[in-house]
Each structure stands twice: as structure tokens, then as C-alpha cells.
Amino acid sequence: MLHFCRVKSNENDEGMRLLDTSKQHWLYSLHAWNAIPLRRTAISKARTGRIMRHGEPQEGEKTVQIVHRIASVLRAFGKQGLLGITDLSSETGLPKSTTHRLVTALVNEGLLVQDEDSHKYALSLHVTALGASILNSHTVRKTARPILMELRDQTRESVHLAVLEGLEAVIIDTEDSYFFVRAVNVPGQHLPAHAVSTGKVLLAYQWETRLREILAHTTLMRYTDSTITDPRLLLEELRIVRQRGYAISQSELEEGIDAVAAPIFDHLSTVVAAVSIGGPSERCRPKQGELIGAVTRAGQQISQTLRYVGWH
């Protein structure tokens, strides 16, 4: 069988003592709206070593504020894709200085990457892969299952459903061929994206800026003489995949195994998965055109169903 494979408080500080009972009573009876802030100010300094001004966010509130700002930045990239500091500041309503600090932190954490030419920013491959895996773990697999079965019966070859995780294509569902000699994958299996058709499709629809950033720090492993290991050649191959709308793999992961794959889009027109057909080269290569037609139609059918589910 072939495999397709707090600062500490000072309680004795005279300046930090709480108002005595009579003063507190006088304040509460005559100026209740001022009493509460004054008392809180004394307490705050006794606990933290500094005066907390009325209306100033406390530590927990500041944390929530930071999270909110980060979320607004990430959401902005989800809408626009590629943004500069000025664009991002306008989109989020945050000051440019704040926006710049947040973006710098997100780049340092590997959540954003910067385009070398435009100097604008985009979500990193890790973020998009995480988002896709959350969705695909259930929705895509459930939607695609009957179509995978139909595709296997139509072509008599093994079919696979995969999502992107970093630079790997992760199999989330399969339907095996009825032939004894066949391409075999199992759910949960990780495959090198640059060497398989599903991986090429999933990489092809990522921002090229992200890909260049990742590939600049990655060594592409060779599995066969046909494996693409030059990042420049891989990027060119991925451009062709985008133009065609499908990917081909011919003995690139394992000698004698070919496959074709097509993208699956969600209701936001984002590629969230890929569907493929694979098998022995001697069977698949002569009917490659037929398999390409079948897998692209299956990808379109799954995409249409996902769009309906996403908008309802």
C-alpha cells in the first residue's frame, strides 16, 4: 500500500490614613458625590503607594482596555488585509502613537508581518491558520462529508480534506479508494505543505508577504527529486496555483503518487480548506484533466454550501 503521506503599602504613612469617622459622616451627609471618590483615593494610595485619580482606569480595567485595542487592530486586518499605521489608526479610532506601539508588539509576537515593499502590515500565517482550524474542526468537515463520498465514488480514487497549520497541511477527513493500491492518509496527519497539492493550494491563497517572511526562516525539506525546495520557485508555483485555481503534485512527497487539489472558500471568500484527489501516478496522470475538473467542481460545491451556512 502506498502512502500519501503592587507596590507594597506603608500602613504607618501619616499621609495615607483614612478620613476619620466624623469627617466621613460629614462628607457623606453633605457631599455624597464627592465623599466616595475621596475615600477611594485614600484607600487606593494606601494599597498601591500612589494616588489613583477619580476616573482613572484601575489595573483590571487597563487590562481589558488593552485587550479591546488589540482586538480592534486584529479585526481591522481581517477586513482590509494590508494596512499602514495611518490606515489602521483611522480604522480603529486609536491615536497613531498607540497604534504604532500595538503593531510593534504584535510583530514582535509573530502575529503581524510587515511587507518589505509597501512597509504596510498584515496578519501572520500563524493567525490565519488558527482561525481556519477553529472553523474547520467541525463546520467544514460536516459540510464536505457527503461531497467527499461522492467525489471518491466518481473518480474511484482517494480524496482528502485538509487545513493549513503553519507550513503543514493537516488532514481532517478522508475517503479511501476502493483500489488495493491507493493513496492513504488519516485524519490528524500532518504533511509538508510545499510537497502536497492541498498544501500548495492553502499556501497559494495566503498573503505573499506572510509567505516570504516564513520562508525566509525555513528550510524546505526534500522528499523526492521532484520536491520544490527553493523558496523563490515555490512562490512562483503558488502564483500559478492562484491563477489556475487548482494545484498539482507529481511524485513530490512520495515517488509514484500524484494528486490534484482545489480551494474551499467560506462566506467571506477566505480559503479555509482544500480538497484533493490522489493515487498512483500510473492511474492518475493519464486522467489528470478529468481529476482536475472533478476536484475543482467539488471545491466549488463545498464553498457554495459554506457560504450559505456562513450567512444564515
Provide structural commentary.
With 312 residues, this protein is α+β, with helices and mostly antiparallel strands. The chain folds into three domains: 17-48, no CATH class; 59-123, Winged helix-like DNA-binding domain superfamily/Winged helix DNA-binding domain (Arc Repressor Mutant, subunit A), CATH 1.10.10.10; 126-311, Beta-Lactamase (2-Layer Sandwich). The protein is built from eleven helices and eight strands. Strands 5-4-3-8-7-6 form a six-stranded antiparallel beta sheet. The protein has a two-stranded antiparallel ribbon with strand order 1-2. The longest helix has 31 residues, at 125-155. It is elongated and about 65 Å long.
